[in-house]
Amino acid sequence: MSEPPKHPPVMSVGVAVEEGCAVAVVAGEIDMATAPEMIAAVQAVIEDQPAAVLVDLAAVTFFASAGVHALVVLHDLAQRHSVPVGLVHSEIVGHVLTISSLPELLDTYPTRRMALDALTG
């Protein structure tokens, strides 16, 4: 019997350190099913209390209201831990953030380079 075809994950989160900043790279779809996984991954990074955290959503292809909620949760967590957080995002995410007024709450940057310079400068 053959195995069913494997489907790529709907969302992935990878974490690395760049220039002393913890970078969480999120790719794929963020919705009600995947937002808790994103929260858990970035929460673990924040709780390690790095000098700063960059959440890179540039490779996100779908961003539902659960993603907005996730960013608010992570922002609040970062404030409680006194960890600065920056955000880089795709055009899709940017549209949702603009509608939700979150750019007023979050430090967003047009590029990863600009975010790293601001967070580590």
Describe the structure.
This protein has 121 residues and is α/β, with parallel strands linked by helices. The chain has one domain (25-110): STAS domain (Transcription Regulator spoIIAA, 2-Layer Sandwich). The chain has helices spanning 35-47, 65-80, 91-100, 112-120; strands at 11-18, 21-30, 53-63, 85-89, 107-109. A five-stranded mixed beta sheet has the order 1-2-3-4-5, sandwiched between helices. Strand 4 (85-89), helix 3 and strand 5 form a beta-alpha-beta unit. The longest helix has 16 residues, at 65-80. The chain is globular. 31% of the residues are buried. The mean pLDDT is 92. Residues 11-88 form the STAS domain. This is STAS domain-containing protein. InterPro entries: STAS_dom (IPR002645), STAS_dom_sf (IPR036513).
Estimated share of beta-strand residues: 25-35%
Low-confidence spans: pLDDT under 50, at least 5 residues? none
Q: What name does CATH use for the topology?
A: Transcription Regulator spoIIAA
- Average pLDDT over all residues: 92
Under the CATH scheme, the architecture is: 2-Layer Sandwich
> Which radius of gyration do the C-alpha atoms yield?
15 Å
Order of helices and strands: EEHEHEHEH
Structural class: alpha/beta
Terminal residue distance: 57 Å
List the total number of helices. 4
Question: Portion of residues in helices?
Answer: 25-40%
The coarse silhouette is: globular
